[in-house]
Amino acid sequence: MGTHYDGALIPDEMRRNFDVYDRINELGIDLGTFDDNVGSLANAGIAGVVVQESGLVYLSGTGGGTYPMNDDADRIEHGIAGAQDAADVLITRLHWALSCGGEGDLNDVLYTVKALGMVVSPGGGATSAGPPVTNGFSFRWQSVFGGPKSDYAENGVDPGGFAGIHARSAIGGFDGRFSIEPEIIVAVPPSLTREIIMNRGWVFPLPPAMLEKVKAQRG
Prior knowledge:
By secondary structure, this protein is an alpha+beta fold. It is 37% helix and 15% strand.
């Protein structure tokens, strides 16, 4: 497990017993490279990630899918696939936000706090697509970090634990040329967020001076 995770206050019965990156590899999630994923905040309108000294990590939403949702079964399956893709994007973003300065990585995630799935369903959201489409995101997240609906669960229990299950809202009624925009909040050890903040600040991508500092540290 991660260095910070090992020292965290977690009941022994709920400690994760697997390497998150083993699951990421098995699920075929490509985390990319530093150069592809770690950039500058120059001219940015919003941050992709904000870390808080308490240990909370807030991720901005990302779009998934290309069609708005309705009650058609094939359309919902498209939305579910798009939501899974969005989960992969946020897992990748979280990886680099925690690891780009060498402070920690995804194995330091203690648990997942809250997700919000905003499903594109024009006409006031008069469709039942919201929860099942957002499940594509939530269940993919559980497959990586552990949860009752993960790909690794048997009889509703993931032998790897429950760090991926989260409180959630799934709402529809938006216009857009995509299917869903999910966002999520996770908890990591405060020792990790304090180290990140002291080394390179609390936002990701990085302020220009911090980006140059991290690049220099990496050699």
